[in-house]
Amino acid sequence: MDLSNPYIQAALQFLAIFITFNVVLMIVAYTVLAERRILGFIQGRLGPNRVGPGGVLQPFADLLKFIFKEEIVPDKSTRFVYFLAPLIAVTAAMMTLIVYPFGPRVTLPYFGQVELVIARFDIALLYVLAVTSIGVYGIALAGWASNSKYSLMGGLRSSAQMISYELSLGLSLVGVILMSGTLDLYEIVEQQSGWYGFKWNIFPQFIGFVVYLTSAIAETNRVPFDLPEAETELVAGFHTEYSALKFALFFMAEYINMFTVSVLATTLFLGGWNVPGLALLFSPGSIPFAVFSVIGFFVKVFFFLFLYIWLRGTLPRFRFDQLMSFGWKFLLPVALLNVVLTATLVWLGVL
Amino acid sequence: MNIYFGLQTATQQFADVNLWLLMPELIVASAGVLVMLVDAFTKRLDQRWLTGGISLIGLVAAAVSCVWLWTSWTGPTEAFFGMIVLDRLRLSFTLVFLVVSALSVLLSMIWVEWERLPAGEFHALLLFATAGMMLMASGGDLVMIFLGLELLSISTYVMAGFRRTDVRSNEASMKYFILGSFSSAFLLYGTALVYGATAMANGTPGTTNIREIAQRLDTALYPPLLFAGAAMLLIGFGFKVATAPFHVWTPDVYEGAPTPVTAFMAAGPKAAGFASFMRVFLFGFPFVVAAGTAQRLHSAWIAVLVVLAVITMTVGNTAAILQSNVKRMLAYSSIAHAGYVLVGLVAAGAASDLGQRNEAIAAVVFYLLVYSIMTLGAFAVVTILARSGDRRTEIEDYNGIGFDSPWLAFAFSVSLLSLLGVPLTAGFMGKVMVFSAALDQGYVGLVVVAVLNTVVSAYYYLRLIVVMFFRERSGAWNAPLVPASMAIALALTVVGIFYLGIFPGRVIEVFQASPSVISRLLGT
Amino acid sequence: MTILIFLLLAALTVGCAIAMVAQRNPLYSAIALIGVFLGMAGIYVTLAAPFIAAIQVIVYAGAIMVLVVFVIMLLNVEEEVRRPIRLRYLIPLGVFLAALLFAETAFIIYFIETSAYNPPPATQSNVGLTASVGTGLFTKYLLPFEITSLLILMAIVGAITLARRVPALEVGGRRMQAATTESEKPSAAD
Question: Transmembrane stretches, by residue range (chain C) (predicted)?
Fold first, then answer.
């Protein structure tokens, strides 16, 4: 088999994408389970533990339930858009998955040297921002097409929130970009491998990190920024009128987004797959080094996912005007300040 | 991955920054920002004086820096990689713009209070528009000219619709916006075509720099594209300066927009449009002797402009006769004047030697200065007489006011006579300069048409004077009080009209002269 | 392979463009326009200009069109009703202009194909890369870039001036009513 043949390469890429999607879907499924169980513990109850040992088969039971539920389409909905919206949401969420590097360069038998990333290209970070910005349509259109006031309000709120916080999110990344001088995520991770794998961007970019984390939570519509689906006011927000698999798609999109923003936080601020001190134990490029790096990467990602769940169990919800003024009047200026500060320091040669 | 390739070259090159060359524009833009800040952080007490005062100070400072650049600048005459050029065309036009803006500020100071409009925003927009006009004159690159034009246009769209509760104002703004965007698109498309047409055979991409365009005309790979691009540019500028047949927006917009804004629009953007027009066509597609693409292009645009000038003058003057609304009449008059300026532009374009060309350019700039002053004067009187809400703008409203408000009527008459071109007024000198420049280039027919048009225009200018002084008054009439700022503006215009009409020599000499001569003139 | 991708993207772009014009529901038109932008972004990628592609998606598809969709949603614009076309005589003019545009395009392509212009192949060019765009913006096009910021500032001021609620201005220490009916009333000078 000739590995340099473009068709073979394309086939391998497809295979890699297929595997990644499935792995991520499994992660998503178990994030949901973990969320329910952890929330249960936080609230002094058990959470789902009946399906399978300790509840491990619960996601599959949920999936079956989603598949076999009745599809209800609102009578006066705009059918085409109504069906399109969940597809947009989930597609946009999944499309970013291919650019994240999850492990270091490794020499594999037969394949030779391999970079553990599906697609490495010049503008990976911009690609992430671009695809994320498309995700807004899923929610906005869902809210509109359902022909329900709750959905519309939820969709509007959600889109307004996402657009507002997208600014701070993008600006919080600029600090990292200024420091690393590239938009290539793989390159950014590699630059953080100094100091025995501890030269993480979180230290010089702490402000950026905090801004990123806050706006990422808002971007994914999670507590305490989950106004779009504030159940006390809006039933379930933009997906009020969605049922069965279409609802499942929105649900999936939300958790995939959670996963991807966690991965981005790990990649940009927590050194990606860099595990401190690992290079002292194994030689870089060897298989055990790669395995432990990948494990380290996922540990960091899971930490963020846990943080999300933790916050959900702890914090109350913002009011909408508070949310907006927090985003525009506090987070955005702080992010701008961070950009100015970083640019000055980079210019002075400090960073 | 050659990610660092660009970064390395970036550190080697530098951005050719020269803020001194950009000084007048910088001052005006900063004054605009300052006005916004002051507006935001002061209580709304007598704000029009505050923001208006800051605007005036900024404009005067810009004028000072402009004169300084003219007299004592010895450094390079280009900056930002040719984006900004320093030459006579730019500086003389910049002074015209500053005069226009200063008079507009004076006109609008009390008006914003009459109309209960936010003064700070208005003055800030006016200053940004001025910065845009100045960039249109100073830009040495089609990109800069386009940006300056947009800066000017967008602020003018807003100012035209500034009286938001008035339907006519909204309509004017909307019309101006749609047609203006349309013409901007023409300009942009023309720029793109010229860029494409000036690509070179060795793989060098095209250029938008006007000087380089001129150098590449004969080696242009796609001459038809060049012609198409030049035509698009011509249409775009034609829209902005309101030449027939691209003038149809003018009467409606001028009539609907608030009168001080109309005054500004009739004077400023028109002059700025001509500045860019001359910059692009005189320097980008200049006169050449050798037969080739450049020569054909030159003779083509000259021929088109001759036709446009004739149509514009004739349409403007004949349509003005039929109007019953003063603002509409003045709008058509402004179209006619664009035609006269085109005569000068043709003369400047056709001039084969540099001295004659410079004289023709100076004639055009002088004409635009004169036109701006007299049209601002006329609109100032219209503003005062129209009262809040622009209610009295029909010609009947002027019946017999001459002896009740003698000073206003006098100022208005002077402006109108100057617009007509009566000897001893500035308008006469302007016409003489422009027409003689055209005669020097042998455009006898064109000048005859222009003079005949002037004769036609006497009808509607004089009619207004007759109406003011010899018609019976219809309806109740109280002589309006003339506020101080308006009085200053009117006095300045009247003095300016007579000064430029009787002693034009010095100003013309300044516009024509090379920098050393000016330092001598000013140093005395 | 490249030609196949190009054809797919071109089909998406052109199809969406036609759908945008043909659709009577404004929201469908907006969605189709997003499709056009995405297709064009894809074409930019195949032209080795990934930065432009990303910006195309972020700015046009991600920001501007969201605004358009918002407006359509909030105004609840109804489906366009088919009305008798008043300006019927413009149809042949439109057809003529469209034909002219096609002719022009064909002409440009013909000229470029037959000309001596010899551009560097796309793989060597760094035109669409992030670094080259940044270099251009901060060296040769520094001044236009800065002027653009002024333009945007001014546009914001203008938009807010036109769009905000009619304010009750305080002039000369007095609180004044909004000028809604002011033009009807005779003013003090009359």
Answer: 43-75, 87-112, 147-166
